[in-house]
Amino acid sequence: MHFEEGQTVGIDLGTTYSTLAQLDRDGNPVAIPNEDDEVETASLILLTDTKHVIVGPNRTRASVEDPKNVVERIKRHMGENEYKRTFDGRPITPEFLSALILKKLRQDAQKRIGKIANAVITVPYYFNDARRKATQDAGRIAGFNVIDIINEPTAATLTYAWHRGELGAGTAGGRARKALVYDLGGGTFDVTVVQYTPAHFQVLATDGDVQLGGVDWNDRLLDHVAEEFKTRHGLDPRESASTVQVLRNDCDLAKMELSEKQETAITCRHAGKAITVRLTRAQFESMTADLLQRTSDTTALVLQQAGITAKQLDAVVLVGGSTLMPCVPAMMENLLGVKPYRGLSPYTAVAQGAAIHAAILEAKFRGGSEISEKIRKMLAAVKQENVNSHGLGIVATNPKSGRAINHVMIPRNTRLPIQVSQVFKTNRDGQERIAVQVLEGDAPDPNACSLLGKCRVTDLPPDLPKGSPVEVTYAFDASGRIGVTARDKTGGKEAAISIQRRGGLNENQVDAYSKLASEYQVD
């Protein structure tokens, strides 16, 4: 693992807010405030004019800007090749826009802690390969040496263990503990069961939804107010981008107010008309009950996949700002019979965990960092084991129907690292090569899965009869990297393969966007 000269940090790159943290010399994970002395920076971008952008502006201010110049919720578009946007006469991607947020975090933090070079960036556990690569590319474009990508609930578990004094060799140990981490952020959701001792963290099961988060609760409020306006005035305020922008901000503020109070009011102004809608917490919870139920169903499923019951849990840990809605801890306690642990900041726990993970990597692979020797030795002993959040399959032919199917080689929630081999048969006489299509997903239909890449297996022995056996091996390492090999079992000769990832940015594009990002002034 390569470290560059400079500080190492952990970053929670969120849908609505982002945070940067670092482990101090005494082993404390500390969120670094931005230039406004806030530990969170809004993941919001104003594309103002040539070579100038504003990152993390006050959301009220952003609500009155031209909607064409406002970028928000970009995390939900990571890994999407079809995302199209133009600024300053150039096409820009989710990776580039996310890089501007990361650049702002780095820029502000460097004023406090000095030069920053290396970073661990968090992602939802349920991010697929394309989204993870896009996140890593965003970090590189922003000028970071991205030493690792860590899953958000794993990061939160590290923070939880640190907070309880249970992290690292030599700390209080005893039996292995089991924690369920429920992470409901602004735009993504996942739930994970982790079993851990002070020096060993093992993910047992995970599941989630990259299109479910606090913004969906906001949108329900917005739709409710818009429908009331439409009933009263016969006009739909959602047809105006500028009205939606203002209303979306007001609904976010109303949601937060309902976490503290039993009632709120939202005013909507559109086309010279206005309406004020009063709403109780009970009404809000009723209109969003199905969203909460989706998280409840996922939680129950993950427990089942982990092979444990709620009674075997030692802790239920809530992270993500959206868990501050009173309905969330109430639902979790009712579902699991365990009172959620609220000792962590839902805003900074993930970034703090990323900083801990970064320090663990430093302790293992780098000398001369800022942490003390005592902390270094303690962290160097920590071992982490993950599972894959998506199945890994191969396009095969069903011998009965003749149809293409996704044959899952490595099911999701399989402990990593893992290596699996299986024998397939050639489809015709004299076949010289086969095409291995690597799929991500568990659905039987290949079209319902993501194609990670195509591997050309060449150099098969000549004159092979139809049905000759070819052994295909999938290897999934601890960091999520995938290797595929094949061997002709007739002649015993290994076939040559090459894997090319589909989609995302290539090296030249990353370099080009890195140069472009360096030219932009970010305020």
Describe this structure as you would to a colleague:
It is globular and about 80 Å long. The mean pLDDT is about 90. Strands 1, 2, 3, 4, 10 and 11 form a six-stranded mixed β-sheet that branches. A five-stranded mixed β-sheet has the order 17-12-13-14-18. It has helices spanning about 60, 95-115, 130-140, 150-165, 215-235, 240-260, 280-285, 290-305, 325-335, 350-365, 375-380, 505-520, and strands at about 5-10, 15-25, 30, 40, 45-50, 50-55, 70, 85, 90, 115-125, 145-150, 175-185, 190-195, 200-210, 265-270, 275-280, 315-320, 385, 390-395, 405-410, 420-425, 435-440, 450-455, 470-475, 480-490, 495, 500, 520. The chain is of the alpha+beta class and about 525 residues long. About 30% of the residues lie in helices and about 30% in strands. The longest helix is centred in the first third of the chain and has 20 residues, at about 95-115. A hairpin with a 5-residue loop joins strand 2 (about 15-25) and strand 3 (about 30). The protein is built from twelve helices and 28 strands. The chain has three domains: about 5-175 and about 345-385 and about 510-520, Nucleotidyltransferase, domain 5, CATH 3.30.420.40; about 215-285, ATPase, substrate binding domain, subdomain 4 (Actin, Chain A, domain 4), CATH 3.90.640; about 390-500, Substrate Binding Domain Of DNAk, Chain A, domain 1, CATH 2.60.34.10.
